[in-house]
Design goal:
Length: about 270
């Protein structure tokens, strides 16, 4: 297993070198129903459509959302649609990728995560098929797998990342989606937020902790009487902040410091 992972990582580094020239040419993916997206460098909002262990049938009993920022930080939350516990899996860290391959490096994981190399296949309708080898948690055997992801456009084109200073926590916002996870000991808190016509609202939460997702979800109020100086508060936040959230800012939530390590507008 160790030799396999070393070979996989070496192979990925080789792919990075080979693809650097192609990335400079801005390889893009042409689709029929989606905007042209450079998946190797562009921030992404990905919803998983299905997962399968080869040769089993494809299925998707979860609500799985993966957010990737311009600086390649990612946060993936997998919630159950019907059963308990609500949170099935949460991972965060760095996602290195080319137009055809990717590897996730985990800093937070609620399970034993593998930093595996996987292949990315671009489908004609704009979806991305991910394939590779992983350990099946049911029987502990390494198997081939496939997962199909659908890209959503980021609107607004804004990304924010906040990390817990003591480690074990991350909040990632890309466009109109925001997710957060905090793991302290055996206690895990995870949240998912979405912005719709009614503003920001939390659509899923697991655990009893408090995350600064509502802060990451603040948007500039361009309709305000102060020339867009103020920010519209997220639903339930209860106050309005008179400055934008910027890289380097520190937010304190229940005595815990969260630092903004990435703020990107494109």
């Amino acid at each position: 297993m160790l030799n396999y992972k070393i070979r996989n990582f070496t192979r990925f580094l080789f792919i990075i070198v080979l693809s650097s020239t192609l990335q400079q040419l801005h390889l893009t993916m042409a689709t029929t129903n989606h905007p042209r997206v450079n998946t190797a460098t562009h921030p992404l909002i990905l919803t998983r459509l299905y997962h399968r262990w080869i040769p089993r049938l494809a299925k998707e009993p979860t609500s799985t959302l993966l957010l990737i920022t311009p600086l390649n930080r990612f946060l993936e939350l997998r919630f159950s649609r019907t059963s308990t516990p609500l949170l099935l899996h949460a991972t965060a860290g760095t996602y290195l990728r080319t137009a055809t391959h990717g590897i996730r490096g985990y800093t937070i994981s609620t399970a034993d995560a593998e930093n595996q190399v996987h292949t990315l296949h671009h489908q004609l309708n704009g979806d991305i098929m991910e394939s590779g080898m992983l350990t099946d948690p049911v029987d502990g055997v390494e198997k081939g797998y496939e997962a199909v992801w659908r890209i959503s456009e980021a609107n607004p084109r804004l990304a924010v990342v906040m990390v817990l200073r003591q480690g074990g926590g991350m909040v990632v916002r890309v466009g109109a989606w925001c997710q957060g996870v905090m793991k302290i000991g055996n206690e895990v808190t995870a949240e998912r937020w979405i912005r719709d016509r009614g503003g920001w609202r939390r659509v899923a939460k697991s655990g009893g902790g408090r995350l600064p997702c509502s802060i990451a979800c603040l948007d500039r109020d361009e309709e305000g009487g102060e020339g867009g100086k103020y920010l519209r508060s997220a639903r339930g936040l209860g106050f309005v902040v008179a400055k934008t959230l910027e890289q380097g800012d520190v937010v304190v939530v229940e005595g815990m410091e969260w630092r903004v390590v990435e703020k990107f507008v494109w």
